[in-house]
Amino acid sequence: MSRAALYAGTATYLQLLSFQAFAQDQFGAEIPAIPGTANDPQGVRPAIVNVINFVLGFLSLVAVIFVIVGGVRILTAGGNEENVTKGRKTIVYAIIGLIVIFFARVIVGFFTQELTNAVG
After folding, report:
1. Three-class SS string for the chain?
2. One digit per residue, pLDDT tens: the chain, 120 residues?
3. What's this model's pTM, rounded to 2 decimal places?
4. Where are the domains of the chain?
């Protein structure tokens, strides 16, 4: 396993930990569901947030796979500098993608929390 794949796996794990933090309020307790408000678990907003989180999680998985593909491309280059360069670019772009996905999740979590506080 290459260092880049290890870093990408660690970044994905840290993302998953940070997503759990958005599901809890500042004291660590679950937010109670109040029917008819923004915290209602059957409402539209939680469904949209769940879809966004699923899509971003799937994209994180795809980015990690691309890091692995870039590492394999470097390992199988056999001295061909062009393949090594392509592998490096693949890894760099995948890591940039992971960073963008991480910040997208942070932004979604922030706005979800702020809108819930403003409406509910």
Report:
1. CCHHHHHHHHHHHHHHHHHHHHCECCCCCECCCCCCCCCCCCCHHHHHHHHHHHHHHHHHHHHHHHHHHHHHHHHCCCCCHHHHHHHHHHHHHHHHHHHHHHHHHHHHHHHHHHHHHHHC
2. 566 666 666 666 556 555 555 555 445 566 555 555 555 566 677 777 788 888 988 999 999 999 999 999 999 998 899 999 999 999 999 999 999 999 988 888 888 777 767 765
3. 0.59
4. 1-9+45-120
